[in-house]
Amino acid sequence: MALPAQYAWLSKEPGPKMILEALKLFGTVEAAGSKDNPTILAWAAEVGLAKTYSHDSIPWCGLFAAVVAKRAGKGVVDSPLWALSWAEFGKPAEGGAMLGDVLTFKRDGGGHVAMYVGEDASAYHCLGGNQSDQVCITRIAKARLYRARRPIYNVQPANVRKIVLVANGKLSSNEA
User: Fold this and answer.
1) Which end of the chain, N or C, is more open, meaning fewer C-beta atoms within 10 Å of its C-beta?
2) What is the pLDDT of residues 79-117, one digit of tens each?
3) How many domains does the chain have?
4) Would you call 165 exposed, middle or buried from its count of C-beta atoms within 10 A (0-12, 13-18, 19+)?
5) Alpha-carbon distance 90 to 101, whole Å?
6) What are the Cα distances from residue 141, in Å, to 32, 90, 138, 158, 165?
7) Is the peptide bond before 16 cis (omega within 30 degrees of 0)?
8) What are the pLDDT digits (tens) for 36-94?
9) How far apart are alpha carbons 175 and 77 in whole angstroms?
10) Can you give the residue range of the structural domain that contains 94?
């Protein structure tokens, strides 16, 4: 699946590595009904969660974050399937959220985790898993932000920056 036109610029970004790894998985879709996407289940095995994660109908935003972090050479938080566990990832995002930061959001019944690719006046544009049952970019209201965390870099990529985007698309209300 190709990136939507408004996000095509992401394919030319040289980093951060977590964004590059996440983009490789863009378009992965949860299987319908009682079926499971074997790719998503393979992620659970890759990060050592095969015994606790057995169906893609189980929320998988934290699993997506874990496989992306692992492939990028970053640490995976304890209890990664719990989205709000990612509020302890890396270090605080000083100066506000920027490209590649891990954002955690509160929602009714739990939380959500995704990566910052930009923002508009009212929402963060987030690359994540289990957003409309797929890996995609969606807008999430800034008011729902719980924490913004920055990966720990040996040398921070030069393109880690705030990105202002046009407010296109509906706001996500529940990523479960």
Assistant:
1) N
2) 999 999 999 999 999 999 999 999 999 998 899 999 999
3) 1
4) middle
5) 9
6) 27, 23, 10, 27, 14
7) yes
8) 999 999 999 999 999 999 999 999 999 999 999 999 999 999 999 999 999 999 999 99
9) 20
10) 5-172
